[in-house]
Amino acid sequence: MIDSATRPDSVQRVSATATVSTTAAEASSAARYNARYNRLGMSIARLTSFFVTAILVSIVGYLAVRGLPRFSPGFFIDSPINLGREGGIFPILVSTALLALVSLVIAVPLGIATAVYLTEYTREGHLTLVIRFGAECLAGIPSIIFGLFGFMLFVVSLGMGWSIMSGGLTLACMVLPTIFRTSEEAIKAVPDGLRRLGYSLGATKSQVITRIILPQAKNGILTGIILALGRVIGETACVIFTTGISMEMPKSLFDSARSMSVHFYLLAREGTSIEMAYTTAFALVLLILLVNSGANLLMQSAGRR
Fold first, then answer.
1. How far apart are alpha carbons 120 and 125 in whole angstroms?
2. Residue 172 pLDDT > 90, yes or no?
3. Where are the domains of the chain?
4. pLDDT at position 275 over 90
5. What are phi and psi of 84, to 5 degrees?
6. Maximum CA extent, the chain
7. Residue 156: its pLDDT value, please?
8. pTM of whole model > 0.90?
9. What's the CATH class of domain 71-304?
10. What share of the chain is helix, strand, coil (3-state, %, to 5)?
11. N or C: which end of the chain has fewer CB within 10 A?
């Protein structure tokens, strides 16, 4: 027979053991539950990644099959002949590069400067809300609206005509919100401790911004610039209203020109040469992939430094 004086301690030990066993069982069940959901989430992520990659490979593969027969080094160094049915795209390639250069030279400083001003020099208020709301609205406007705006303002009102400058200014207005918003988010992500550390060492605000904040935010800023560059290179509706459709080599920024996307669109729409249209599309996709890959490599090398 068990002594009554020791019974309470035994009961407490049994109760504690039961509680520990119950807690361990609940923890084990929760761990198995979380593991199942983690595996499910990983499976969905892998499936999504595979699906996106398959779409990209399918597009590039289809364009390669249709465009490779006329794809050669001469395609990039020759001028178009017979309305683009023969020859190459060298003047069109130069026009596309000039359009991208003009638009980014204008949009990148303005976008970064606006982001720095809103994050470092102003407090949250009605002004910042209005500016951000305006940028978000501009980012959602269809490109053809920007094309009509550029046509009325730069081509007609300012007398620039169909030219690379008109197209570049219009494209700068179109990609400015993208550069501004990505730069702002990248600057906001810089820890405040780095700012305070710079001020504690006697640095001025401009020195903190140029030597600490912008170098730390460079990857996010470059991402916005890459997105803007890809949109500029692939834009059609905005460019056709402001730059024109000339296939001649531009002699100045005020000459009419034709971008690669417009060249592809006109060849395919008018049925001038479907083969050359596919070759141009394949070259355009390769150009965008090369630009993105090169920019990613630069960001990775800069991050290692």
1. 13
2. yes
3. 24-69, 71-304
4. no
5. 95, 0
6. 112
7. 93
8. no
9. mainly alpha
10. 80, 0, 20
11. N
